[in-house]
Amino acid sequence: MGEDHCRRDRARRRARGPVVSSLDEDKVRELWSRYKNDGDMTARDRLILAYSPLVKYVAGRVGNGLPAYIEEADLISYGLLGLISALERFDPSREIKFETYAVSRIKGAIIDELRSLDWVPRSVRSKAREIEKAITVLEHRLQRAPTDGEIADELGITEDEFQHNLSQISTTSIIALDELWEVSGSGGDQVALIDTIEDPKGRDPSRMLDLSELKSRLALAIDALPDRERLVIALYYYENLTLREIGEVIGVTESRVSQMHTKAILRLKARLRDEIEPAAIG
């Protein structure tokens, strides 16, 4: 109950917006005049303090939906840079409220910093999501695993472009251990990936049951893969062969094996998500 109350309280505060400055309007105008006309840095610091609730407000809104490993304190520090930039560039004589001008600057500074921290280009992440969606749509429509050509047609690209996209995506399959994942059938509960790593000194019966169900679903999804993709998964994860060694076994290049592996993983993710989401809704 306490946690739900706190969550609702935070939501109400976000809906009301930030409480900016306890100073009256005359005092704020005086500070702006001293800063802009006289270059008074003390007045600038007072303005930063007065408008700092804007930063916390914007950071809270931007932080919704971001992975758990991104701390709100970091977002606030990025946003402060945006606030300072807004103070330096703002012209008080213009017919616009500083709060309106500053919010866009603060949000832009936070987003720019987040983008600089993400080593994977947004275009590559977008392509991965599009391929997952296309696989799900085609499997529903065809009632079987779609071919490369069918996936490419669904995406509106050539098969060569599709293979190139797979090669790009194959280099980005890294997941943060503190990223939150939704637990199937839990009504929206989330768990950090690091918390799913098995403790060799303890055996949790409920966890073992969850793992058993997940393994069963995964096994069924693997069985539904096309033969060559299923073989690549088996050789890579069960026989511990390298991509080069797998290529020698099945007679293709290492690059082609990487593409097949990536495509198989995307198929599995699409199929498992398709099974998990209805369970969560129910």
Protein described:
- By secondary structure, the protein is mainly alpha-helical.
- The protein folds into 2 domains: 2-117, RNA polymerase sigma factor, region 2, helix turn helix motif (Rna Polymerase Sigma Factor, Chain: A, Orthogonal Bundle), CATH 1.10.1740.10; 122-281, Arc Repressor Mutant, subunit A.
- 70% of the residues lie in helices and 2% in strands.
- The protein is built from 12 helices and 2 strands; from the N terminus they run ααααααααββαααα.
- The protein has a two-stranded antiparallel sheet.
- α3 (41-63) packs across α4, α3 crosses α5 and α8 (159-169) crosses α12 (254-281).
- It is elongated, with a radius of gyration of 26 Å.
- The two termini are 23 Å apart.
Q: Enumerate how many helices there are, as a single number.
A: 12
The helix/strand series, from N terminus to C terminus, equals HHHHHHHHEEHHHH
Looking at this structure, what is the CATH superfamily of the largest domain? Winged helix-like DNA-binding domain superfamily/Winged helix DNA-binding domain
Structural class: mainly alpha
Mean pLDDT: 78
Uncertain segments are: 1-16, 278-282
Give the percentage of residues in beta strands: under 5%
Q: For the report, how would you describe the main beta sheet?
A: 2 strands, antiparallel
